[in-house]
Amino acid sequence: EMPLLSQCFNLLDFEAVARRVMKKTAWAYYSSAADDEITVRENHAAFHRIWFRPRVLVNVEQVDFSTTMLGTKVDIPFYVTATALGKLGHAEGEVVLTRAAKKHNVIQMIPTLASCAFDEIMDAAEADQVQWLQLYVNKDREITKRIVQHAERRGCKGLFITVDAPQLGRREKDMRSKFDEDEGSDVQRGSTTDGSQGAARAISTFIDPALSWDDVPWFQGITKMPIVLKGVQRVEDVLKAIEYGVQGVVLSNHGGRQLEFARSAIEVLAETMPVLRARGLQDKIEVYIDGGIRRGTDILKALCLGAKGVGIGRPFLYAMSTYGLDGVDRAMQLLKDEMEMNMRLIGCTKIEELDESLVDVRSLFNH
Ligand code: FNR
């Protein structure tokens, strides 16, 4: 009853298989989003309101879509974003994503709440493989300091501080499905956990809701890793991030799992970059987006609008949960194939050629 892997022709196909075959608690935790799940749907739908304005008669025989992110050269402008509890979907957990990331020369962001121990994920990587750390900031800053400095010593090349989760969003699908703490295994735990409130609530009680802009210099003082704020949702905060001297932001609504009626990251990006350009600030910070990216064309649209790269979450979880490493490998290859073809079809041979003239965003805002 499982389709062959070769029958998955795009990232959405993995989701359809996962919905049918995954364990109920795992599917509920991975797929759930806040409240009525309006934002999570908008995340992908927003891409459908952007159209291309391709160039023709460009020699596109040779196409190269490699680029850099925080100084690291990658084969294609996406990274595996941080998603907690990898062992809910696959017995080996996050290291499956590590191996696929290596094969495709893309970066993996390691979640604070990984099922595998942090060192196990670092050890699973090859010597030259780049990984980033996603940080949930603990109320006990000594714990946070230890995590950050350990990650830096182990060779992590970027610190992504999650700023959109002072309290976990209400994910009712997840709450309805009772979570047994043992399923998550090695995750960092706070004081008490309560599995009856779903997987998300059970693991997140240590997160500090008092985290503020005033803490940013403290982070800059404890690490030399580039700092990126993950979960920024308005241009005013991007300007503030530049003032505070951080290296990047991820425009993101946490896959629709936090604030319901947060806008899609692609829309926030389209609002942000013209403001940065008008002030000559576009090179002062690297802007990433995540949420709803499922197609090569989605990646292209984000890059045309000024993103340095994009994060992808659920599709790799679904591919891992259904077909393991082979699934994630195929999902990444499908994105590369889609990227290559669509670069040709819009008349571009390199990432530097992607610009806003190649997209029509009139209906992005007016719908
Ligand atoms: C997440 N996300 C997330 N983000 C974060 O900063 N720390 C975390 O622990 C998690 N955990 C997590 C678990 C699961 C199951 C999902 C689906 C998401 C958010 C994630 O990094 C990213 O913002 C979104 O997943 C991007 O949207 P897509 O690609 O899943 O649509």
From TrEMBL:
<dbReference type="GO" id="GO:0046872">
    <property type="term" value="F:metal ion binding"/>
</dbReference>
<dbReference type="GO" id="GO:0006089">
    <property type="term" value="P:lactate metabolic process"/>
</dbReference>
<keyword id="KW-0349">Heme</keyword>
<keyword id="KW-0560">Oxidoreductase</keyword>
<dbReference type="GO" id="GO:0020037">
    <property type="term" value="F:heme binding"/>
</dbReference>
<keyword id="KW-0479">Metal-binding</keyword>
<comment type="similarity">
    <text>In the C-terminal section; belongs to the FMN-dependent alpha-hydroxy acid dehydrogenase family.</text>
</comment>
<keyword id="KW-0408">Iron</keyword>
<feature type="domain" description="FMN hydroxy acid dehydrogenase">
    <location>
        <begin position="3"/>
        <end position="364"/>
    </location>
</feature>
<feature type="region of interest" description="Disordered">
    <location>
        <begin position="175"/>
        <end position="198"/>
    </location>
</feature>
<comment type="subunit">
    <text>Homotetramer.</text>
</comment>
<dbReference type="GO" id="GO:0004460">
    <property type="term" value="F:L-lactate dehydrogenase (cytochrome) activity"/>
</dbReference>
<comment type="similarity">
    <text>In the N-terminal section; belongs to the cytochrome b5 family.</text>
</comment>
<dbReference type="GO" id="GO:0005758">
    <property type="term" value="C:mitochondrial intermembrane space"/>
</dbReference>
<protein>
    <recommendedName>
        <fullName>L-lactate dehydrogenase (cytochrome)</fullName>
        <ecNumber>1.1.2.3</ecNumber>
    </recommendedName>
</protein>
<keyword id="KW-0285">Flavoprotein</keyword>
<keyword id="KW-0288">FMN</keyword>
<keyword id="KW-0496">Mitochondrion</keyword>
